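Hi V.,

You were right to ask for the full record rather than a summary. Here it is.
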Amino acid sequence: MTESLLRKNWAGSLVIGCDHAGPPLVSSLKLLFAPDIRILDVGTHGSASVDYPDFAKQVAELVSSGEFDAGILICGSGIGMSMAANKAKGVRAALVYEPELAMLTRQHNDANVLCLGARFTNPLVATEIVKNFWLTSFEGGRHQNRVDKIAVD
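Predicted structure:
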């Protein structure tokens, strides 16, 4: 399995957060990354009900500040996490349900936070989504102007 571990590509550090729907998926996704990737799991770590915006804000602020290169957020649907994370300056959070969309959101939107819906994304599909997100770089060029237009002031 070591050969399939995700190494540094466009990002070398990752912060992960989730609500009560996400811990099982978070546990399996963290195993995808090589030991040289700095990972911070801000929780939650149990099934007790929590408020997803608290975790989205924490992850978004860590990415916004530059302390972490990328983030992953997981809640039941992924919708709330993506809405909350996109309020932070410099964060481009994308809710993704298909592996190809993970590549496109990196190539065209320079997404730096991946949002997943634990109740709607099969764990094997989630694995492929994360791999594509991590291993794909932003294309820049004509896409840069568009990314600049969606920036939060």
